[in-house]
């Protein structure tokens, strides 16, 4: 299971793979397990060729996930992995099923009229991952949960900004329709050359929302153990860099996929590390100690 999940993260997300190297070995393996399950579920939906098959796969994913949390996983390595970390770290079933509900929103081709509606989607498909990782990494205070959910949502908003063209080609629009309407961009024409400037303005507006969530997410670093805080800080820095590159490219942001260069990633590692190093005095004054998470954080 570990081998399969490690391959998935190395192929599917070089940014997360880089950050995961900064975890302690046990935490890194658990992060691979969680990523493998998330990646597998997402791929199962994306590879389904029609709506009926997508709906069937959502039901299968929900059933197999329930079985994994019951301690009776299928032979699929990713569900064996999920069963292992769910038991070891007491991950609430609620978060995993919320993530699958987020994928169901994709299957239903839900549109998001307001930014608040989009926030719910981001919480489900990404905020829940941050919440599950909170159980894996350990936190010193349950207040960390809100920050974890916010950081996941920030990263998802960045993904949406980067992938406007790819999503449009698949018939998906995640940008708030109200904002597109205000910018006089028809939903089905967001990649038309004459609308590029207006779409770039909508994306800039959305990335400003993402920045608020990044700020909240980073406030939670001091609730994490040292190595985990370092990994999360670097991941946040790499992802926020993607957003800044999208803004810098303006109307050309979707001519090709926006990626962070190796040099950019090196800078992100330094910046993310310095952010955590600046918190050393606070850690010395109040040494980190893991607490058992009793509550389930729910999107308001």
What does it look like?
The protein has about 300 residues and is mainly α. Helices cover about 70% and strands about 0% of the residues. The protein is built from 14 helices and no strands. It has helices at about 1-10, 15-20, 25-45, 50-70, 75-90, 95-105, 115-135, 145-160, 165-170, 175-180, 195-220, 225-250, 260-275, 280-285. It is globular, with a radius of gyration of 19 Å. The two termini are about 35 Å apart.
How many strand elements? 0
First-to-last CA distance = 35 Å
Taking all Cα atoms into account, the compactness measure Rg is: 19 Å
Low-confidence stretches: none
Can you count the helices? 14
Structural class: mainly alpha
Beta percentage is under 5%
| String of helices and strands | HHHHHHHHHHHHHH
Largest sheet: number of strands, sense, barrel closure: none
Helix content: over 70%
- Mean pLDDT across every amino acid position: 92
Shape: globular
Main features:
300 residues, globular, 70% helix, mainly alpha
List the helices and strands and how they pair.
Blueprint: H1 2-12, H2 14-20, H3 25-46, H4 51-69, H5 77-89, H6 93-107, H7 115-137, H8 144-162, H9 164-169, H10 177-182, H11 196-219, H12 226-249, H13 262-277, H14 280-285
Helix pairs in contact: 1-3, 2-12, 3-4, 3-5, 3-6, 3-7, 4-5, 4-6, 6-7, 7-8, 8-11, 8-12, 11-12, 12-13
Summarize the structure.
It is built from 14 helices and no strands. It is mostly helical and 300 residues long. It is globular and about 55 Å long.
């Amino acid at each position: 299971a570990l081998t399969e999940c490690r391959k998935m993260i190395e192929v599917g997300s070089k940014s997360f793979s880089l950050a995961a190297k900064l975890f302690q070995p046990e935490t890194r393996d658990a992060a691979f397990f969680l990523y493998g399950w998330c990646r597998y579920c997402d791929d199962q939906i994306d590879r389904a060729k029609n709506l009926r098959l997508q709906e069937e796969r959502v039901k299968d994913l929900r059933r197999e996930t329930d079985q994994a949390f019951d301690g009776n996983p299928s032979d699929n390595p990713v569900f064996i992995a999920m069963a292992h970390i769910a038991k070891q770290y007491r991950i609430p079933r609620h978060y995993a099923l919320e993530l699958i509900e987020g994928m169901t929103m994709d299957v239903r081709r839900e549109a998001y009229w307001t930014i608040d509606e989009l926030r719910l989607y981001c919480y489900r498909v990404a905020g829940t991952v941050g919440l599950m990782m909170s159980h894996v990494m350990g936190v010193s205070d349950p207040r960390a949960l809100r920050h974890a959910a916010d950081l996941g949502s920030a990263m998802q908003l960045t993904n949406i900004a980067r992938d406007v063209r790819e999503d449009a080609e698949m018939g998906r629009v995640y940008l708030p329709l109200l904002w597109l309407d205000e910018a006089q961009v028809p939903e089905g024409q967001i990649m038309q050359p004459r609308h590029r400037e207006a779409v770039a303005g909508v994306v800039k507006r959305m990335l400003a929302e993402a920045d608020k969530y990044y700020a909240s997410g980073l406030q939670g670093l001091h609730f994490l153990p040292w190595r985990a805080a370092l990994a999360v800080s670097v991941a946040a820095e790499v992802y926020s860099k993607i957003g800044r590159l999208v803004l810098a490219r303006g109307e050309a942001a979707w001519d090709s996929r926006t990626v962070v260069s190796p040099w950019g990633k090196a800078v992100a590692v330094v910046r993310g590390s310095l952010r955590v190093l600046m918190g050393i005095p606070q850690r010395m004054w109040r040494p980190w100690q893991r607490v058992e998470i009793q509550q389930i954080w729910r999107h308001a």
